[in-house]
Amino acid sequence: MTQTSGKTWFITGASRGFGREWTIAALERGDRVAATARDTSTLDDLVATYGDALLPLQLDVTDRAADFAAVQRAADHFGQLDVVVNNAGYGHFGFVEELTEEEFRAQLETNVFGAMWVTQAALPIMREQGSGHVLQVSSIGGISAFPLVGAYHASKWALEGFSQALAQEVAGFGVKVTIIEPGGFATDWGGSSASHSERLPAYEELFEQVAEQRSKRVGTPGDPQASATAVLRLVDADEPPLRAFLGEAPLGIARADYESRLAEWEAWQDNAVAAQG
Asked: What class has domain 8-251?
């Protein structure tokens, strides 16, 4: 099939949350979407509604070969690839001392390596087209950090690092990169899709404090459905930003964090200069 109008999207983690809402928003306006999920039956209702405009693909993003095959199949099926959304991911809850090697590696395999493989698979197609837009779904946790989710922060900081480098590497080919940084939204991120470390008794009191702090910080969670309008504006922008918050809270968190960092670096600048010799 060759696309003649609208955009073609490739969205990972489309079974729920942001991925599902953004898939629906793209389809509603007449775009085409290759939507991936571990279980494609979760997309059956969308196939029934949108027909050939939706290509459901079974995918575990930690499988590099499967990522490359899925991206190529989407491009071959629709004839082009305009927007790639690396949305598949989950949150792991556990203090750093509690993390097992398996838990930490699994967090990175999905949130970092999965996005890396899908991105690498899409780039040759976009370079040949001379256009394309990669959306990396990070988090306010990609630039700040809080207790209990150290593994998640590690994954999102890594995602942001390679994506900022990538944006500079592919700009000359007409390919754009945007890192999306949501605050708290009513997705399943902290629900059944999350994983948890076995808790150590020494951290029990801190665990209760952190839970209370998180509740205050997040406030009223945002509506994932409403976020779709903001994402469509990003993909339609002639000059989209490298980074884009979703929600009201992230800007305040980022401002406080960066002001604190700058003040601390400046306070220790004499020591930094002395280290130079």
From this structure: alpha beta
